[in-house]
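Anyone? Bumping this.
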Amino acid sequence: MGKPAVRLDELIDQDYRQGFSTMLETDTVPRGLGEDVIRLISAKKNEPEFMLDWRLRAYRHWLTMREPQWSTVRHPPIDYQDISYYSAPKSRGDGPRSLADVDPELLRTYEKLGVPLQERELLAGVAVDAVFDSVSVATTFKDKLAGLGIIFCSFSEAVQEHPELVRQYLGSVVPYSDNYFATLNSAVFSDGSFCYIPPGVRCPMELSTYFRINARNTGQFERTLIIADRGAYVSYLEGCTAPMRDENQLHAAVVELIALDDAQIKYATVQNWYPGDKDGKGGIYNFVTKRGDCRGANSRISWTQVETGSAITWKYPSVILQGDNAVGEFHSVALTNHYQQADTGTKMIHLGRNTKSTIISKGISAGHGHNAYRGLVRVAKSAEGARNYTQCDSLLLGDRCAAHTFPYIEVKNPTARVEHEASTSRIGEDQLFYCQSRGIAAEEAVAMIVNGFCKEVFKELPMEFAVEAQKLLGVSLEGSIA
Amino acid sequence: MLEITNLHVSVDGKEILRGIDLVVQAGEVHAVMGPNGSGKSTLAQVLAGRDSYTVSAGSVRYDGRDLFALSPEERAREGIFLAFQYPVEIPGVANIYLLKAALNAQRQHRGLPELDAVDFLALVRDQLKRVGMDEALLYRPVNQGFSGGEKKRNEILQMAVLQPKLAILDETDSGLDIDALKAVADGIEAMRRPDRAIILVTHYQRLLDYIVPNQVHVLAQGRIARSGGPELARELERRGYAWVEAAAAGTGAAA
């Protein structure tokens, strides 16, 4: 970094000082949860009355709920009073000052993933001029998008600038009373992304939370709301493609997608939160509610996820197929290594006529990993001519891991066609030896075989994402070969 | 190039190879023949580094080094190639991808730069023609949905691309019709060079009509029961394996 960096640094400092007084205050929000805390959060964000009401209703409902016990995941009890519910942006003073202060193991992983140096600094939370760069980049895109009428901003900003849209759509797919973690999120969510594509507009670029994350550390309770109006199209990429160190234990996000007539939303996630160490210590509990509503006729929503991180993953990106001829898709790769646990899958709720859904799930278990696919296909009486195809494949590496499949199928319409295929295989010694006998190292061979196994899902990802997902699998599987 | 001394190998406590002695020099082609269950494939797999076998005694030196000190991938990078009797399917991995990864791993080991996609494709296309393989097979998942003949040709293609110093072909001729056999045999014959050794593991004489070996060895009950020139293979074709086995049993009893 040459001379200009100094200047930029000064600029950042300025920028930072401006936000300082409010930020300092938010840092003082004590641990614990109560109506006072929720009022405080809402006040800090200068929210309109309807938002506070919504949060409070959620909170009161949450008090009547109990943590779900039905999944296969196991964890020690979470003390909800021991969490601070306002994740203020990390002040620059708290972060590491240079890469030299960052955990070398983390840097080694970034290096393997081929993350550019500047990005590595960003991801590790190092305060450098690149942060500033990234903010300005985000702004540039925002202007370009605004020209098309596309709204892409933080949730807080949307609440201020577009309250009517927020009011209309917030909670319309995942109501505040939906489930324990979604309800908690509804009460306390700090920020997130908001996206609205106006009728007939095709969003010209992949939208990504990447910029948002860099611009602001939104913390454990985020909320994403994406609306594709009639005939609109958007492809949205979520998450960090490199490991993110995060001391938070619970990550309870909510994502709502709404597709009106003839609209299409593609939502891709590469999730790589901190999975805990090799012995299963630490790591994120990723308890996320993601749901899309194909509200209009001929609408289409597809979820593609690559889940390699988190100590526990608990999520079921789902599609409600309301509009006639609507199409829902779910493509998933979930990998568990060491002591990671994943209970993930989808729900396809067929309500409209001639609705179609496809589910492709690839679970990979290594080490002591536990991997469960849980999926519901429900065809309502009204869903004349509905069709579903489900394919669930599990791959096991070693003999201490486990894979489970829990398919639930409910069909109330006799014209429906529902297909389910499942397979479980072990990485063959034969396959491994075959690759090795050609000169390919064992770990590389495993990565190759696993990537082959996941190919059907990876081809759904935008290309740069697919490449990173492949690398990520390689890194995540490190040490899985004895 | 390869020196096997008193090699004993067992699987699950059962001894399969019971004292193999074999010396293969550069430039030579050796045929290892024998009835089913005589240990031919075991020998091939042990040389390539399969770890489900236990070497209980003996040694193998390759280019003067202890072969068993090397992992399977190190052996491959040092120039050993095994053409599998039953080539393995790898779903979702393109044939050409495996081939490129293999070649580049070996080149890297030898301090050579990796080949880029253009140079690599040119090289592969050239070899494809020699093997008589359809280019479409390059882009299909490794061996998945290949016919028996296509799988065997694919092994020969890999060998031709990797250009090993020591090629071990495990029953590459089995299950081939006459045209495929000819193509595979031509592919092997084309590999014959003064600085390369080839071990042909085979049950039948017919491959040796196309590739005349320097030496023929007959394996019976885990030992080399008889060695000789190409005429030995023809004698086996005429008389079968029984007489060699009987002789081996005789020496076995005497030992």
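Late reply, but here is one note on the structure posted above: Residues 3 and 61 of chain B are 5 Å apart (CA to CA).
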